[in-house]
Design a protein that fits this description.
- The two termini are 46 Å apart.
- This protein has 2 domains: 79 residues, Arc Repressor Mutant, subunit A (Orthogonal Bundle); 77 residues, Rossmann fold, CATH 3.40.50.720.
- Strands 4-3-5-6 form a 4-stranded parallel sheet, sandwiched between helices. The protein has a two-stranded antiparallel ribbon with strand order 1-2.
- By secondary structure, it is α/β, with parallel strands linked by helices.
- It contains 6 helices and 6 strands, in the order αααββαβαββαβ.
Length: 190
């Protein structure tokens, strides 16, 4: 019976970096993956032991021999398997997030809260706008901002609620007070 190799996301990141380009030092690998040099050393040793990576001689000169970390056929196979696993995981996370947003936005609509301002990352604002459009919700995004400091830009009568991506209500209440927005107009997305 062949023992199945258990690999982490860090393992995948290193395998992926080695698959994309020639890397000859652990420092390069750390820079390309965003993983600390110490962790790269640990993970790389594990990948070498498992036979997923090998060290290959790629350049000979009279003064120096150069090496590169290379994926083995087994490493390429494991990277492909991990890619599928992580894509499926991210797709599941996306669908769960989408379902939660649909539920939350539909609840707002059913309570006649129709004009909303979203405060949070631009990508989440786009996600909210896409769901409103796809589900034909009556909600109208009357504004959006990245930070609570931008609340001062809106007239409190121009919206029903401010939806906050970051659920830090204490900080939000202070910002709302500074912008003369009634606290009851603030709600957390989650």
């Amino acid at each position: 019976m062949v023992k199945k190799v258990q690999l982490s996301e860090k393992d995948f990141n290193i395998l992926d970096a080695l698959d994309r380009q020639e890397i000859s030092t652990q420092r390069q690998l750390a820079e390309n993956t965003g993983i600390s040099l110490g962790q790269v050393n640990y993970v790389l040793r594990s990948l070498l032991e498992k036979g997923l990576v090998k060290i290959g001689n790629f350049k000979r000169s009279p003064h120096k021999i150069g090496y590169a970390y290379l994926l083995t056929p087994k490493g390429i196979e494991e990277k492909s398997r991990l890619t599928a696993k992580f894509v499926m995981k991210r797709l599941k996370e996306y669908n769960n997030l989408r379902d939660r947003l649909i539920e939350r936005l539909s609840a707002l609509e059913s309570n006649d809260i129709l004009r909303i301002i979203f405060v949070g990352p631009a990508s989440m604002n786009d996600f909210v706008a896409t769901i409103v459009k796809e589900k034909n919700l009556k909600l109208k995004l009357t504004g959006n901002g990245r930070t609570l400091d931008e609340l001062t830009a809106w007239d409190p009568d121009s919206f029903d609620r401010v939806i906050l991506f970051d659920g830090n209500m204490k900080h939000a209440r202070k910002a709302a007070d500074a912008a003369n927005i009634p606290r009851n107009k603030l709600i957390s997305l989650w």
